[in-house]
Amino acid sequence: MKNLIIMVSLFLSLPIMAQTKVVKKNAVKANNFGITYSLPKTSLVVDAEVTKVTCKVGPYYKYAEKYLGVKDAITEDKVYYELGKIGLTNKGVPDADNTFIVEFKAGTVAPYAYLTEEGLLCSINAEYTPDESAQETAQKKKKQAPAKVTDASVFSEELLMAGSTAKQAEVAAKQIYRIRESRMNILTGEADNLPPDGEAMKLVIQQLEEQEKALTNLFTGVRTKETSDYEVTIVPFDNLDKEVLFRFSPQLGIVDADDLGGAPVYMNLKAIDRAPALDPKEAEKKEKSLKGIIYNVPGKAGIEISINKKTLYKGEAQITQFGTQECLAPVMFEDKKAPVKVYFYPETGAIKQIIQ
């Protein structure tokens, strides 16, 4: 565990409207023409989609195959969970050990920078508009409203007067077939009293379909689903081998990593592009040479997430902890006629684009 930091959270899939905010900082005399910024370290946000499935048995389930030909009707009330899509997002978090002050000369033309609210560098001498993150767009899912197995509005007098459950099932089945016949007659124009126009026909068909579904539920039962997301945030500092993110159980859903009630969901992370390690003298020499606007050159890692030997996610991610740092010379920003514009990736601290 010494090679990473793990944070977890559980939340319902409701829309997240917040967007990354940026702040413009001007290098002026009041702050000695300096702008303070931080470089990020990489945190990996693993998002697991979990679906809670609630099954409610219908009162006529024993007769579903006999009257409707349905062989997979729900036969008992139960709740179970399904593990769905696994996503991974690279998110930069400020590195307290890599906070810098970039100082511009007084003659530089209106130098400014855009920073995130956390102080991560987004751009220098360039307007910056943040993109909506993948995490924010992924949370726009709608929860399914619970469906009722029985709806009193579909119980006709004939059905209510039926003495036994078997007789009620027979009557309900006949109602279903009458509804289907009525719908077909309307659609083919053979009904005695057709709706006056297209909108009226659409409304009638919709009502017939709702009645049929409500009656059919009495035989098949109702299966409803509610989706939630479970997040695990990892800050890796080395390779990971079978690191347990969380555990999953069809009966319990997602449980903590140390709860043996579920099967472990593993992460394997291996560096595939890593800056060579420097000895103390080389590291000191390089640190002294970094005079200017320091930025990250991230490394890269291959990542696989699995459960019971089944791969749930496989991909690559840039990891700043596996990379190195370089710098842009301050003289680049002193040309009054053609000031240089630089864009950065705030997630990694790497250069995105230089415009001159």
Write the layout of secondary structure elements.
Layout (H helix, E strand, L loop, with lengths): L3 E9 L9 E5 L7 E23 L7 H5 L9 E26 L8 E5 L4 E4 L9 H5 L18 H5 L3 H24 L9 H23 L1 E15 L3 E10 L3 E3 L7 E11 L6 H10 L3 E15 L2 E19 L12 E5 L4 E6 L1
Antiparallel strand pairs: 1-7, 2-5, 3-4, 3-7, 5-6, 6-13, 8-9, 8-10, 10-11, 11-12, 13-14
Helix pairs in contact: 4-5
Count of distinct structural domains? 2
- Spatial shape: elongated
Question: What's the rounded overall pLDDT mean?
Answer: 81
- As residue ranges, the low-confidence spans are 10-20, 27-31, 137-145
Task: Please list the strands of the largest sheet in the order they lie side by side.
Answer: 2-5-6-13-14
Number of helices: 6
